Amino acid sequence: MLNFTDINKEAIGQLAPFFAGQCTHLSDYSLGYQFMWRKYLAPAFAVAEDCLIIRERYAGRDWFRYPLSRTGDMEAERRAVALIERYCRDHEVRLRFSGVKADAVPWLTLRYSDVSVTNTRRWRDYLYEAESFRTFAGGKFAGQRNHVNKFKKMYPDWTFEGYMPAREAELVAFLKEYEAAQRAKADELADEEMNEVYGLVPMIVPFGLRCGLLRAGGKIVACAVGERCGDMLVVHVEKALRGYEGAYPMVAQQFALAFAGDVTYLNRMDDAGDMGLRKSKLQYLPCEVVGKYAVTPRRPIDTLSELPELTTQRLTLRAVREEDAAVYARLAGDGARNRWWGYDWRADVAADFVPTADWFLSGARELFAKKMEMPLGIYRGDVLIGETTLHRFGYTAEAEIGVRLLPEYEGSGYAAEALAAYMAYAFSKLELERVEAKHFRENARSGRSLQLAGMKKTGEDEAFVYYEKTAKM
Q1: CATH number of 5-123
Q2: pLDDT tens for each residue of 83-129
């Protein structure tokens, strides 16, 4: 069971042990990134299998970052993936992975029968050899070297120093001067980034970040803030005032000289789709533009545009017809039936709500439209006598099945007949590997129906008895 905690200033320190040794080369797995973008992505975290699992919300959707093992244990990360799958199934959340490292993509692709994989260019990180920034050696870095030399010539009194808390007010004043020009771009993402930079300043020391200040004439004209993560230094912030030519390559080199002597790489984040920034980052000759893959598994239900129609010796299973809305309301609104169904519709509405005859049918159709359930009416001739549904679709070819009948049609074997037909369809057409079911311990009649349909008991707890049927049974 995964229990998520919001990532805030109080909780973020718990993430540090996972980020300190991470070897993904992704900047997302860092304290600075998670802190700066917490308001934008509303992240939360859980720890399981000694892995960090981060859930984010972006564009109205939940996303899960690929699990990060504290010790680099690949098998532990895969076990954590299974826990995320279970969480999504139990909470009716669509499974979407973001920021997946490249070497995990093939395994995820093979794990799911149908996936969408994207690698958006604007969010890829720029990774550089730290040594190249420390020296700017060779003809390929002649431009950067010339800018550094020009800055030194124009400002012979330049200095570079490590940040101390006593400099906080001075650093904030520099950022406000920088911001005055930055705000003129009217870029919402850039504005949000500046807001988060201000918030990061008081956390430089508590988070153990590395920060350097470049001065000219005693005034701060550029700054950089970074974080050690494994064999790289992630550069979260790099700002320089306009009018100080060469300040950007100068602060980049001095920062690398001061703080990147014990790492192999510099990660200078993404370009967020800013073409000017992309050009600049490419001119520094990255050794890799690190992909951040989004992997979205598709379940069998996701491909369906309409419900199937199935026939048995005595029954037809199909979408409930409009003219049967009142009968369906009697079935779905029956408190006794809902007790064994495991769901009380009254829990989701106001106390004084009075449903119309078609309210229940509209709700069932909405569940299918959202790809949460596949409800089929059970018809005896033209008469609606009950419902069977596939729901709780998982991500490794499994789903749960349920059935309910109007009281006057119980005891004739209709439930088992409908269940058997729907499971046959699930295996042959939806290509599921396992169908699960459960019933309350005191509802023995349901257990007999499940067994007559070919399901086998797999266990029980204080509340339920569990069953399953696999494709080979």
Answers
A1: 3.40.630.30
A2: 999 999 999 999 999 999 999 999 999 999 899 999 999 999 999 99
**Residue pLDDT, tens place only, 15-40:** 999 999 999 999 999 999 999 999 88
Which residue(s) pair with 69 in the sheet?
51
Q: Token pair for residue 375?
A: 């409800």
| 182/424 Cα distance (integer angstroms) | 62
Q: What is the pTM of this model?
A: 0.90
Express the helix, strand and coil content of the chain in percent, nearest 5 each: 40, 25, 30
Name the phi and psi angles at 126, rounded to 5. -100, 115
**Is the CB of residue 421 less than 8 Å from the CB of residue 378?**
no
DSSP string, 92-140: T----EEEE-GGGHHHHHHHSSSEEEE--GGGPEEEEEHHHHHH--SGG
Task: Note the CATH number of domain 125-269.
Answer: 3.40.630.30
* CATH class of domain segment(s) 300-470: alpha beta
Closest CA to 266 of 291, 249, 287: 287
Number of CB atoms found within 10 A of residue 308's CB: 14
Tokens of residue 109, six digits: 């692709």
Contact 34, 7 (CB under 8 A): yes
Task: State the CB neighbour count (10 A cutoff) for residue 420.
Answer: 17
Sign of the alpha-carbon dihedral angle for 33, 19, 278, 143? positive
Question: Residue 424, SS3?
Answer: helix
Residues of CATH 3.40.630.30 domain(s) within the chain?
Answer: 5-123, 125-269, 300-470
Distance CA 136, CA 351 (A): 71
For residue 158, the Cα-to-chain-centroid distance in whole angstroms is: 45
